[in-house]
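Continuing from the previous page...

OK, I double-checked the sequence for NAD(P)H-hydrate epimerase against my notes and this is the correct one:
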Amino acid sequence: MSLKAISAQDAASLDKDLMEIGGWSLDQLMELAGLSVSQAVYRVHPPSSGKNVLVVCGPGNNGGDGLVAARHLAQYGYNPSVYYPKQGKNELYERLKIQLQNLDVPFVPDFTEALKSTHFIVDAIFGFSFGGPLRDPFPSIISQMESASVPVLSVDAPSSWDISGGPPKEGPGSKFMPQALISLTAPKPCVKYYKGRHFVGGRFLTKSIVDKYRLDFPSYQGIDQVVEVGVDAEGRL
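Thanks. Re-ran it with the corrected sequence; updated structure tokens here:
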């Protein structure tokens, strides 16, 4: 099963519609996105496979999704830690940090050192709004994730990838192929370059939104917030 991809512009417009017309707040959307990420982690890397999860967060909403995911992972029995070198200015991110601190989830100062003891990485650095170029410290971080010996799950797109064009031709991220990817709301065009386990999280979408953006709505089962789908999006973009 493959799903129709949505452009970065339409993804931004869809989020705007959800908040301005649909009655959703940014907090709610980020909570559902982070919950979806945490469920995808549980699917591909249950606690029995290793409880140490390093969540790498960028300065935008993708990083906020990672902070939410880290909280849920702590509640599931994992031992998450967070690397968050550049915090965004929205006060929502500060509240998400406080929630994690209240659960004794550590914020680590050194990614390279934290990498030595982790069993799994969540790449929540850049989402569908990424346009490059990479700025410090992220080139080094992405290069280390690229060569890491532990599995990586990327949120919405592998960080450093162009949302339409896929991985960069050279430099950090050019060979970055995480073991798992979760697309939020709908796949982005770069999914056609991806090879690995692919999940979608967007169970909150209404029929009017699905129809407006001509999306394919997968069949979520039970209480699941994610569904595993194929990555063959050829002819569907």
